[in-house]
Predict the structure.
Amino acid sequence: MTTHATPLPEGERLYNARLAVPHYPAIFEGWARAAAAVRDSAPCRLDMAYGPHPMERLDLFLPAGRPRGTLMYIHGGYWRSLDKSDASHVAPPFTAAGYAVAVVNYALCPAVDVETIVAQARGAARWLAAHHADWEAPAGRLFACGHSAGGHLAAMLLATERCVAAAVCVSALYDLRPLLQVASVVEATRFTSLNVPALSPALRQPLTTAPLLTALGDNENQGFHTQFDAIRESWRHVHAGHVACPGLDHFTILEALTQPDGAIAVAALRLMQSFER
């Protein structure tokens, strides 16, 4: 007798990256190993508090000399999973180029809502901007970078804060309204039609003219391509460029950020270095 698999709901097909990449646990394990190796070998200050909540902590990775600026990196995980300890390996391409890198933690859903997470990301950015002299970084050169939900948070910084000079958003979410059709996300985030508009960068405007660089893997769920189209159109006056990543999916795309010659790392550094001219 022939059996037929139950088709995925449309929202899950479009936005559930873990279903699209079933071997994601092995990828996550690789991230954790690589991140631990960086913490073991690189100059860093771990678990620095940027706010009172136990999850409001960051790991700061330092270059060999006085930093040229500071990059704030925000991990993904659909606002409900992963940790800064899974993302330390983002730092080396940027510390090698002379930048300090702050890998930021935040509280996770469902313990908190996404409004709280956005407030924590804003608090981290303000803390980094205020304390740059503690690691001898220059004022005015705080850059934000995030992957997936972290990319959403980086974009929200451009919509809510003036202290971020530029943002790099990798495989990010910009218009959260389609996520109301993704039960696996709504269950954790408690998104409703009332709260998603204010949480959607594509439905807001950037607070300044700080440039936005985007990146996306060719092999990502179609929903993430739709998200890119939304921000490219609504923020076209600050959209500074896009990095297309052939052959990469929602998780393997981080290879283009964590490798020194990765396309995203190269483009991000070019953007950051433009502030020194």
